[in-house]
Amino acid sequence: MSKDDRAACASRTHVEVRKKGTKLSERRPTSHERMAGQSWDASYHDGPAPWDIGSPQPAVVRLASAGGFAGAVLDAGCGTGENALHVASLGLSVLGVDVAETALAIARKKADDRGIEVEFAAADAFELKRLGRSFETVLDCGLFHTFDADERPRYVASLAPVMEHDGTLYVLCFSDGGPETGPHPVSQEDLRAAFSHSNGWDIAAIVPDRLQTRFHDVGAPAWLATIKRS
Q: Which residues of the chain are modeled with pLDDT < 70?
């Protein structure tokens, strides 16, 4: 596929998602946006956002090296696309979605510059079913922990219809353990409550990891959860 073909494909996907869903400009700001006093998109207006490290997260690289990604892959809250681009560079079909149009424009330019075939589309994390697609693997890197207790059930319910039976969800989020925790730290209990067996989820593992940011020299304490859709 040529660069022009990839750009056209990304453009068609972008338009399709917005036609099916509520206009992103009309969505209610998330708890993080209300707390920060600015939209997700505005986070990218004056240079890299705090979580935009300019490379894939080491935890994601390790997962990919171990064969953790399979089939069609969704990167929910992809930002400027480094994780999605890394997984796509391995030959997998990847769709990265975000509400931040500025971040998506940066991600698309990176894909073109690097010659990587990948899709990026504007979509609301609370309305993922409007993508009209299903995925064997879903990556949530730094998204779950931005939602408060009222938003998490809506987000988890949004994930359910886009995941294939026995599909795998990876959640990399700030943890509540150790010094120099990141904003919105999450406990293991929070993860287990959100992804309960009664709602069709099976948590295979929750292990300590690190989430790199532009303000942590060695990354912030994190959980890496491996969750199966039953």
A: 1-25
